[in-house]
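Got a spare moment? Tell me how you read both lines of this record:
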Amino acid sequence: LTKKFPKNKNLMLYNEDILKANIPHHNIVISNIPYSITGAIIEKIFYNENPPRGVLLIEESIAERIFSKNEYKKFSRITVSFNAFMEPVKKYKISRFNFIPTPKIDLALIIVKPKDEIDQFLLEDKERKFFLKFVAGIMPYKNKNVVNALSLFVKNEGFGKFSKNDIYNYLNGTKNIDKKIAQLKVDEIVDLSKSIFKLLYN
């Protein structure tokens, strides 16, 4: 490509591992993302204080989870994490049979843009890392109520000194405390992560 476009001064080519590369600031990403590292690439590009717009070709099942904020069966880790930073705009299903060779999965073209306002908690490095770990830790328990899911997360993270009663008393008076994790909105899960961060680290 360097030889093919030698005179294009506005074109910069990088032959690097995307997960290790120091990517310069950019306004939009247009990409056919490798299926096996979709989550890692999305996290690197979009989960930050100034994410770009995106036009992405990804596995259809992942696209459905990104767009399905109100469907229990598809409500997942990537649903919460992605929608905390980005706003899904449009999704177009693309049949696998439009490609040669034919992949084993159907694809989707999605258009996404940064949220108008990203929660301040997610803009600090330590807090953002905690939030992503928090989401990964509670989503396996999405069918449990908030206190039960949080007590399992806290225990798994090595904070055994906090019992289920401790967590309940700490959150007592908080709305949605009796709901299941999957019944919460994305912003409510962000707020929950802030509360648990304060409990564990303050």
Observations:
- Residues 35 and 111 are 17 Å apart (CA to CA).
- The helical segments are 38-46, 60-67, 77-85, 125-138, 146-156, 164-171, 186-201.
